[in-house]
Design brief:
With 444 residues, this protein is an alpha/beta fold. Helix content is 16%, strand content 29%. Strands 1-24-23-18-17-14-15-13-12 form a nine-stranded mixed β-sheet, sandwiched between helices. The protein starts with a strand and ends in a 5-residue tail after the last helix.
């Protein structure tokens, strides 16, 4: 067993190209070159203090990105400012339910009149310290939306609107398009009546090298909740199926009496895709879905080549709502209790936050590793444990966090735990570790 508390490093390195995009920049008179010790109380709205408005009508923004995918970092610079000029930069996204998300901060240009968000901290701002992507992950709903509003990703692309004002005057604008899938990626919806499965299948562009396929299993929220992860993974070359296993037509209405054979059928269906390498499937389960992932690896060691567990439990939990069981095997109930692992033959990567507000996933992930050790499992298994992250430690990066998630037992909204900065840092690194793990499981 290996328990790792990673040093939170920079995200995955990728080739950089300058995007010819249009941005909204708003420059104000607050902030400091070195930034503040803590974010401003009360959210991202920045009130610009009275003071002289300096002429910066020639301000422009350069946006540099890896591939314009949602999981790649942007590098944002504002040029054409006056030396040491203080500017207020804001960012906005409209999500899939038309909820407006926003963040902002006041910054100071350097002596040459350049503001580089990779090197300057806001003062005040929605986040503290230097973080070039801080304006994205620190977003919260605009005033007027109820507490606990969840970010619902817009389909296909995220339109990021950036802004800088000088006093009350807007001096430049850009809209940055962030995409869920790369050019050439295809999507196919699977229907339980026609296909025997419910889910969204994403395939890499035609002619791509064959890679391991990834079966994505969500948690107590039900439905096709891992679809956006599937789109990103296909963009990185991995055929991916975001599987629904309850809460849809033709499936159990709730997380009760779900046949484990259904997951094996889905894995075989994915393995049959020509784009999938011949050496098996990686199953990636989040929260309650981690139970299904590990049970499938236990039952089908010949089929499952790798296992990723995000905020897992070490036990099988009851059905939801109870009474009853969540899972069946060959028509018989799988009773609650420790998840057996003695037949697991695949490498296992667990991702957990030590501040998980849903359940103690870091401790239980450690228990799973000890159980694998005790069973004599020789395939590599390890935990990535993040001290200030919560239940969302393993989510895809650079998106607004949600103030509430669905409790995997009660299905009521609960605080997922962790700090916004802790969750964001964990997501960046755990996503890079995910891609490295998948790249190590096979390609042809």
């Amino acid at each position: 067993m290996r328990l790792t508390r990673p040093a939170l490093a920079a995200p995955l390195a990728m080739p950089l190209t300058v995007l010819p995009l249009t941005v909204l920049l708003v420059a104000g008179c607050l902030g400091a070159a070195g930034g503040c010790a803590a974010p401003r109380e009360g959210g991202p709205s920045i009130q610009v203090a009275a003071g002289p408005v300096l002429d910066s009508a020639g301000a422009t923004i350069e946006v540099v990105a890896g591939a314009a995918l949602v999981d790649t970092p942007l590098h944002i610079r504002v040029s054409g400012l006056r030396p040491a000029q203080r500017v207020s930069v804001q960012a906005r996204i409209t999500d899939g339910r038309n909820v407006e998300w926003q963040a902002g901060g006041s910054y100071s240009a350097d002596r040459s009149g350049l503001l580089d968000l990779d090197h300057r901290a806001p003062c005040p701002g929605a986040y503290a310290g230097v973080d070039g992507m801080g304006l994205l992950w620190s977003m919260t709903p605009a005033p007027g939306y109820p507490e606990g509003t969840r970010f619902d990703p817009p389909r296909a692309r995220v339109q990021l609107r950036l802004a800088v004002r000088s006093g009350e005057r807007t001096i430049a604008t850009r809209t940055v398009t962030r995409r869920w899938f790369a050019e050439g990626v295809t999507r196919r919806s699977l229907d339980p009546v026609a296909d025997g499965l419910a889910g969204e299948l994403y395939l890499p562009p035609a002619g791509s090298p064959r890679h391991s396929g990834v079966l994505l299993v969500g948690g107590a929220e039900g439905g096709r909740s891992r679809e956006y992860d599937a789109a990103l993974l296909a963009s990185h070359g991995h055929p991916a199926l975001a599987l629904a296993y309850f809460g849809e037509r033709g499936l159990p209405a709730t997380l009760r009496d779900v046949p484990l054979e259904y997951f094996a059928t889905a894995a075989r269906r994915l393995a049959a895709e020509p784009a999938v390498a011949a050496d098996g499937i990686v199953i990636d389960g989040a929260s309650r879905g981690a139970e299904a992932a590990l049970l499938t690896a236990q039952d089908h060691p010949d089929l499952v080549r790798g296992v990723i567990l995000r905020s897992p439990s070490s036990d099988v939990h009851p059905g939801n709502p109870g009474p009853g069981v969540a899972w069946t095997r060959q028509g018989r109930p799988v009773p609650p209790g420790p998840i057996p692992v003695d037949r697991v033959a695949a490498p296992v990567l667990a991702i957990a936050g030590e501040a998980d507000g849903v359940w103690d996933s870091a401790r239980m992930a450690g228990q799973l590793m000890l159980r694998l050790d005790g069973a004599g499992v020789t395939a590599r298994h390890r935990v990535l444990s993040y001290a200030e992250a919560g239940h969302a430690a393993g989510a895809s990066p650079y998106l607004p966090g949600s103030a509430a998630v669905t409790d995997p037992i009660s299905r009521l909204p609960v605080d997922p735990g962790g700090t916004p900065a802790g969750n964001a840092a964990a997501q960046v690194q755990s996503w890079a570790e995910t891609l490295a793990f998948l790249d190590g499981t096979g390609r042809s």
